[in-house]
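Changelog-adjacent note: as of this version, every example in the card shows the full chain rather than a window. The one below runs 467 residues end to end.
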Amino acid sequence: MELKNGLKNDTELLQKIAVVAVFPLLVSPLIQFVRNCLWPERSFGLFGQESTYPWTIELINAFAGAGIILLWIMFLYTIWRGSDSFKKAFIRMLPQSFFLLLVVWAVVASVIKGHTLYFTEGAPVLSESMMTFALYFAGYFFVGILLSQEKYRRIVVLTIIGGGTIIGILSLIDFFGVSLKPGFYDNKVSAVFYNSNHYAYYLTICILLAAVSFVYEKKLWLRCVLLCSFVCNTVVLIVNDTLGSFLAVLFALGGFVWLVASGKTTKAPEQRKRETKSAVVLLCGYLLITIIMSFFYNTIFRSLVVMVFDIGKILTDAEDKDRAGNSRFRIWRYTIQYIREEPIFGHGVDEIAMRLYKDSGFSRSHNEYLQYTAFWGIPGLLLYLLACGAVFVRGLKERFVQQPYVCAAFVAAAGYMASAFFGNTKYYVSPFFFIVLGIAASGATWSCVNKGKLLRNDEKKFKEMGK
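Full-length structure tokens:
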């Protein structure tokens, strides 16, 4: 970065590096599919598994991590040079500040409580160390929040959609009779993921990004592709039969209808009417696809009926209530018990894994909010919620959802957070969420720069410094 190039070039360079740094991650399911076809995996059981996906993500994280460190250095250096706009943007990075505090708290809590190799290496199979979570909070989120221009947000969002669409099409081919093994696995509809639920969380993000992008995209051919992506992945989600993700997408699409109908995304009456109509069509289409698919695969409706009976078991304190929610009630009950033992500092990264596995048959809490609380105590959960809450509150209050791809990321992040009540963080899915959440926060962060006044002042200042 030369001073004479001015801040505008610095901003462009930061965004280009950010996109390059995470691009392998954005297409990682495709990379894993190709790798599975060329070098099939070998498995040696639950806690002794040799798998290529963690290794693939480890390489991708190393590449992304190097780029992210460079981004932080460049960003802080630009502030040190006296950039008024970057200083303002940094001050407005409230969610990032909370995530940085969460990283500090997690490390401090782990040191106070003592830690095992899980802290530095992650638990077997789960494969998420403290460094992994630090990369989520201070790395992938930072990449998303750095994207101040819609063209770079668009590249990231469309790349995620593109990868998800290809995997979705291949999943349907595999499901309806043409086996893609060893590229895909045999356990239900899980594609390259080790569990169908994990695939469903990825689908949640892809479906919602495609839906909102469809509403705002101007090019007809791309709108057709986005609509096909939405339909294809919705069909995959239904046969996947993960009720939590299905309900999360339904919730987010309903929220999107409210966003556009209430004028949060635009002030122009005609545009609001057009966007509302498109959003309602997508919501109705989602329900229609569900109804049509239910004539052939009664997955969602069966799961809804089971959910109603499970709620009844819990409310009536039935003997088999622990089996409710595919045994999630039992997992949550034990996790809450562990949280009560260490409410302030928590137990550390996956330090409850073996104990929970012995008590419930599962090694994770199947609720990300309980998971974070068990790891780093109630303060850790509060910092996480403050970071995420700041994104949504500021986005709605200051109308930054009026930027199309900020809005797409906003809705997708909301959908994922809804699905998180029933799932865990996972090394091959969670990074997508934090990038999308960062993009959702980028509108409020860079509004001061995009208005132009501070940017022009900085360019004048740096031009004089370069003489």
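Structural remarks: The chain has one domain: 3-466.
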